[in-house]
Specification:
about 50% strand; Rieske Iron-sulfur Protein; three-stranded antiparallel β-sheet; about 0% helix; four-stranded antiparallel β-sheet; single chain
């Protein structure tokens, strides 16, 4: 299945296969991809932190995170889904793969997910 030039859709399971807020790991074209169902939809990421290769899908998933603030002052920010790496606590925006607070230029690889009827698909770029 295709639809977008240079990409293909790969089936990763049925809706019922995905527990809310829990990653399901799948091997797609030799890449371990974590697919997660949330209240805000489905997301897919490469299960390797760009910092030092940790299995990032074992990390914590949350809506937002703490922002820099003055001592004894706490400010919650970033209303998007955030995935925190289990090794060094780098935080990534699950929609873009960017680090929270732009602490690094490295990005977590993210993939578009489509749901067609009751089937879940991840869109991968074709290898050149």
């Amino acid at each position: 299945m295709s639809g977008v030039a240079g990409t293909r859709l790969v089936a990763v399971g049925e809706l019922a296969d995905f527990e809310l807020n829990r990653f399901k790991l799948v091997d797609l074209a030799g890449r371990e991809i974590g697919v997660v169902r949330t209240d805000r939809g489905f997301f897919a990421v490469h299960n390797s932190c760009p910092h030092q290769g940790a299995p990032v899908c074992e990390g914590m998933l949350s809506f937002g995170t703490m922002a820099p603030s003055a001592p004894h002052s706490y400010r919650y920010a970033h209303d998007e889904l955030v995935l925190r790496c289990p090794w060094h606590r780098w935080e990534f925006d699950l929609t873009t793969g960017r680090t929270i607070g732009a602490v690094a230029k490295q990005r977590l690889a993210v993939y578009p997910v489509e749901v067609i009827e009751d089937e879940v698909f991840v869109r991968l770029k074709e290898k050149s």
